[in-house]
Design goal:
CATH architecture of the largest domain in chain A: Up-down Bundle
CATH topology of the largest domain in chain A: Multidrug efflux transporter AcrB transmembrane fold
Strand content of chain A: 5-15%
Order of helices and strands of chain A: HHEHEEHEHHHHH
Radius of gyration of chain B: 35 Å
CATH superfamily of the largest domain in chain A: Multidrug efflux transporter AcrB transmembrane domain
Shape of chain B: elongated
Radius of gyration of chain A: 24 Å
Number of helices of chain B: 14
Strand order of the largest sheet of chain A: 2-3-1-4
Number of domains of chain A: 2
Largest sheet of chain B: 5 strands, antiparallel
Strand content of chain B: 15-25%
Number of helices of chain A: 9
Largest sheet of chain A: 4 strands, antiparallel
Strand order of the largest sheet of chain B: 10-11-9-14-15
Oligomer: heterodimer
Chain lengths: ~325, ~525
């Protein structure tokens, strides 16, 4: 069996469609981050108290809210746990803002919520399964760590590609990965899903993984550049994408299969993590074809217009 | 060639066996128990409590400086400079002692005292108004901070051990300064833990110099708006159930946490829970001096306040001189009295502690997470294996064997190194399945390409591996770099993810490249030249 035996698609001819597609999704995400849901940060970063409660029967959110109000907890957010496998239908997450978890009165919010549930919620038994309390100091700390880790990852990738290829390849790949990160974050904002520490871990993994397809395409471009110097760069890039299309789609597809199974069966705790991977792997594969490679051509055209050298460097270690 | 192939096969089987041992050890009981014994589960899987604490080292610095200031005042008197006063009077500079009232002709004598061995951790500077400032050297402040955190860790460990938690983790936490990470497996009721760690943070006995007052304003008014430099205001109640009031206390405590040698819960004459304590000899002498000077029969009768966590718990007149034995009746419950005396016995914390982060996972959620993680892993693996079989036919078997070995090595490695498997770690295993098989795809696609170019099976296999190798290295390096950054910056569960992903991909280099190649070679060896390869 074989997909894409001898594809001959003019990828660069479609670059305006790609640009449009990428723009729509990134702009939608950015707009949502700016004006709609913002960046929905989880308790890890905002600080606060988050309590996961399992009920014996399907809970009534209004009754929970009433129980909280009677218990003197007025600023709680009550949210059903989302989980595609349906295992978590009887669970809710009760969140309190940061004011409940100052570094001094750390545990007060949890105590109030547990007391309110125990005394005022009559529908069924409530079991507290998970409690996360993050004070303001820890929240700031974790936020800083996440930002630093993301930035260092991007820089690490840039340096590696620079070392393996040429700077422009590195820049193109990092732009593509940045595009993936932005769209994935945008998807979280659009879907109003919370970005937690594990989501950041997923995004960092994506930064590494999206590089893979890009490297496969770049490797082939370089190989073709070294063997065939008469072809135009656009043709070389097109041919390279077509030659590697099969493995690009297969490798991403197989990883996607495992990630999809994680999303479907992996449970509610990993929901955000697997959601990021599902979105990110799709976008990452798309971007190595539709963003990274066309950027190389665009760069060369831009240099040609300015009357500079037309040839794209084939790279130091090119194999003939 | 034939011989080296046999050697390689034997090597692979050896590796398989070693890592199988790594996963289950010497099988005892069922497979499940064997695995559970070898693989270390994270808190998110087996349930437990994760805490991040911050030690307020400033308090330890301030109280060390306070003690030095008291001693300095005595030393200056002894050196014949009676008018001098020394105190930590500037609240914004806790590491600074200001000495004033030194007559001009005695400055060099005072300098002599400052240069004594007790004060060599201070930098001395002269102020324009004839005052002298002693500031604790930064190096000493840092040393003291480190020591304070270390002592806190030791103290907390003793307390946790007394609670009977198996395999707790109590260590410095890398993310912020003066922070401690506490991980308590199997304990999902944080309230008791927090009480044990925190509520007993600081027990002190202070001399009462004024009050009680209605509130802070009243106390300030009574002192004409300015508090004496050596005093502080402290809220609390004179006894259990009394209304909240404010007292003016001497800043330097008479007895502090480290002075207690022993403490036991008991009951007072009215049957209420209280705590009897014994002080260390040195502290007993100090306490005797203070209580005999201020007992009700002395010229200056006084009262003292027992302060717990910066809150007055009891105020009592000093009936008679006390040396090293006393009791505290702070209106405790039985549990509180027992916990508090435990804390006093194990040694008090050198500074108070606040909680920055608390995460607990109940055992039911952990068990559900394991179940779901395993289901997701099996489902993902089956999907990938079936796909490889359909798409690459005979060679698919090769890839599936390599994938299986990859997982065995990964899990065996976890068993050998005692790394912790967390829920994101399981996700890392699942991702390893997906990414590991990518290497096979890269190789197989290249082999197909070489075959299409008309090369023989053996040559195509050789070329396929040679060309795909570079790309495989590239892809692994990028992902492992990501994993390393995650390991450096991540905490608990995320670290578990970074570990499994990195180990998995490293093992994949062996299985997808070396093992897979050996399988191809041994398969082709048995065939005639020019026979087709099932790919």
């Amino acid at each position: 069996m074989e997909f894409f035996r001898s594809t001959n698609i003019d990828w660069l001819g479609k670059k305006w469609y790609f640009l449009g597609f990428s723009l729509i999704f990134s702009v939608a995400g950015v707009l949502s981050m700016l004006f709609w849901h913002g960046i929905p940060k989880g308790v890890d970063f905002t600080g606060g108290t988050q309590i996961r409660v399992a009920f014996d029967t399907t809970p009534d959110e209004n009754h929970i809210r009433q129980a909280m109000d009677q218990g003197g907890v007025h600023n709680a957010t009550i949210q059903r746990v989302s989980d595609p496998s349906g295992h978590a239908a009887n669970k809710v997450i009760i969140s309190l803002p940061i004011s409940s978890a100052t570094d001094q009165a750390h545990d007060a919010g949890r105590q109030a919520v547990e007391a309110a549930l125990a005394t005022n919620y009559k529908d069924s038994k409530a079991t507290v399964e998970q409690v996360e309390i993050v004070g303001p100091t820890a929240g700031k700390q974790l936020q800083k760590q996440a930002m630093l880790a993301t930035v260092y990852s991007l820089i690490g990738m840039l340096i590696y590609l620079w070392f393996r290829f040429e700077l422009i390849y590195g820049v193109a790949a990092v732009v593509a990965v940045f595009h993936d990160t932005l769209i994935t974050l945008g998807a979280f904002s659009l879907a109003n899903k919370e970005i937690t520490l594990t989501v950041i871990a997923a995004i960092l993994t994506l930064i590494g993984y999206s590089m893979n397809d890009t490297i496969v395409v770049f490797d082939r471009i370089r190989e073709n550049l070294a063997t065939n110097r008469r072809e135009s760069l656009a043709d070389v890039v097109n041919r390279s994408i077509n030659q590697t299309l099969s493995r690009t789609v297969l490798t991403s597809g197989l990883t996607f299969l495992t990630v999809l199974s994680l999303y479907l069966f992996g449970g509610e705790v990993l929901h955000g993590f697997s959601f990021a991977l599902v979105v990110g792997i799709l976008i990452g594969t798309y971007s190595s074809i539709a963003v990274a490679a066309p950027m190389l051509v665009a760069y060369q055209e831009w240099r040609a217009k300015r009357g500079k050298s037309v040839a794209l460097p084939a790279g130091r270690n090119a194999r003939a | 060639m034939g011989k080296s192939l046999t050697g390689k096969t034997a090597f692979i089987i050896g590796v398989l066996l070693i890592f199988c041992y790594g996963i289950v050890g010497i099988p005892k009981g069922g497979l499940k128990e064997s695995i559970a014994r070898r693989i270390n589960l994270g808190l998110d899987l087996k349930g437990g409590t994760h805490l991040v604490l911050e030690v307020h080292v400033n308090e330890a610095v301030a109280s060390a400086v306070d003690r030095d200031a008291v001693r300095l005042a005595t030393d200056l008197q002894a050196a014949g400079i009676p008018g001098a006063s020394a105190g930590r009077t500037d609240a914004s500079r806790p590491q600074t002692i200001i000495v004033s009232g030194i007559p001009a002709d005695k400055v060099s004598d005072a300098r002599g005292v400052f240069n004594g061995v007790n004060y060599n951790t201070y930098d001395v500077a002269s102020g324009a108004d004839g005052t002298q400032t002693l500031t604790m050297k930064q190096q000493s402040v840092n040393d003291l901070s480190t020591r304070t955190v270390d002592t806190s860790i030791e103290t907390i460990r003793e307390r946790i051990d007394k609670l009977g938690v198996a395999e707790p983790v109590i260590q410095k936490y890398g993310l912020g300064e003066n922070q401690i990470l506490v991980e308590l497996p199997g304990l999902d009721d944080p309230a008791r833990v927090e009480e044990v760690i925190q509520s007993t943070a600081k027990l002190e006995i202070h001399a009462v110099t004024g009050g009680p007052f209605e509130n802070d304003q009243a106390a300030l008014q009574a002192n004409n708006g300015v508090l004496p430099a050596d005093s502080i205001l402290m809220k609390g109640a004179a006894s259990a159930g009394s209304p909240e009031q404010v007292w003016l206390l001497k800043r330097v405590s008479e007895v502090e946490g480290t002075d207690f040698r022993d403490a036991q819960p008991s009951t007072d004459q009215n049957g209420r829970p209280n705590i009897t304590f014994t002080l260390t000899t040195e502290a007993g002498d100090r306490f005797y001096k203070y209580t005999s000077e201020h007992s009700s029969t002395s010229a200056t009768p006084g009262s003292m306040a027992i302060v717990l966590d910066n809150k007055v718990r009891e105020v009592a007149g000093i009936q008679s001189a006390i040396r090293d034995r006393g009791e505290i009746t702070g209106g405790f419950t039985k549990q509180q009295a027992a916990d508090l005396s435990l804390m006093l016995r194990t040694g008090a914390l050198p500074a108070s502690i606040s909680f920055l982060e608390t995460r607990t996972v109940g055992p039911s959620l952990g068990a559900a997470s394991i179940r779901q993680g395993v289901i997701a892993a099996v489902a993902g693996m089956l999907a990938v294996m079936v796909f490889m079989l359909i798409y690459y036919k005979g060679s698919g078997i090769n890839a599936d064997l390599a994938l299986f070995l990859n997982l065995v090595i990964l899990l065996g490695f976890m068993g050998f190194t005692g790394s912790t498997l967390t829920l994101p770690g399981i996700a890392g295993v699942i991702l390893t399945i997906g990414m590991g098989v990518d290497s096979n795809v890269l190789i197989f696609e290249r082999i197909r390409e070489e075959l299409r170019a008309g090369k023989s099976a053996a040559i195509a296999v050789q070329q396929g591996f040679a060309h795909a190798w570079v790309t495989i290295i590239d892809t692994h390096v990028t992902t492992i770099v990501s994993a390393m950054i995650l390991f450096l910056f991540g905490t608990g569960p995320v670290r578990g993810f970074a570990v499994t992903l990195a180990f998995g991909l490293l093992a994949n280099l062996f299985t997808a490249v070396f093992v897979s190649r050996v399988i191809f070679d041994s398969h082709l060896k048995g065939k005639e030249r020019g026979a087709a390869l099932s790919i």
